[in-house]
Here is the input.
Amino acid sequence: MQYRRLGIGPLDVSALSFGTWLTVAGGVGREQAIRCIHAAVNCGITLFDTANQYGAGEAERVLGEALKSFPRDRYLIATKLYFPVGGEPDHGLSAAQIQKQLERSLTRLGVDVIDLYQCHRYDRETPLEETMTALERAVKSGKVRAIGFSEWTAEQINATVKIVCDGALVPFCSSQPQYSMLWRKPEGAVFDACARHGIGNLAFSPLAHGVLSGKYKAGEAPPPGSRAASEEMNKFMESAGRHYRSDYLLAAVEELKPIAAELGLTMAQMALAWVLRRPEVASAIIGASRPEQVEDNVRAVGVKLPDEALTRIDVAVGRVAVRD
Here is the structure.
């Protein structure tokens, strides 16, 4: 495993992180989810990403239970707030919400401090100054070590930096955008803004909701036991910005297979190495429904893709990649 500094903050993170979206939140059984988390720790993964919303708090509870058998300095916990939790109507990034949701997350996780507390989305209903001041208090209280955000625009990032500088507040150290061979939107203004302001990126869905593992084929039903075959886990494959199971897209992904084979890599390893090649990316967040998937993915760390392979990848899937 390799470890990288996450922006200008205090955290060094593993090049691969473990995410709990969909799988740990109920997509797989509790004991199986815990086995996957244990496999991640044993493979050297140190950053575990969750959110209060996932499974209405269940992902945080399972993650806390799974990690409690390890020394606290073996892992970092990242969680988020913004969306409603379960059937509760309140949401957002107000000072009251931050105080309430932080305490609830700490309780569910069973820890005294959250290493990375993230704004799950931008809150247009709350003044940005209020949000940043409340996050400052959370850090100063000792209950949060560093702060970040997910899926913010470059304009929102720049506005936040100005407020932080003007008020001498704790700055964001991380951004969590969707990023993969098939979803390249951050490569423009977002990566540029993050680089200018010392913000590291935690790329989520680096396998494009599992499509880049190569397990799905155009014109065929998804294999049993796969994410696309699960009603719990496939719900975002057709609503996360593009249709990830369309025959047109799957036919393009099929063209990646000989490239990976010639490199001696699995499709997943090649897709992860492609994401990790970017200097703006501190860590790629993987999910897993089986421990073996974690062990396979970790082998992508340290792989350098030749320029020729990068060119062939662009020829294969560049035409179906989302860029703007």
Residues 162 and 168 are 10 Å apart (CA to CA). The radius of gyration is 19 Å.
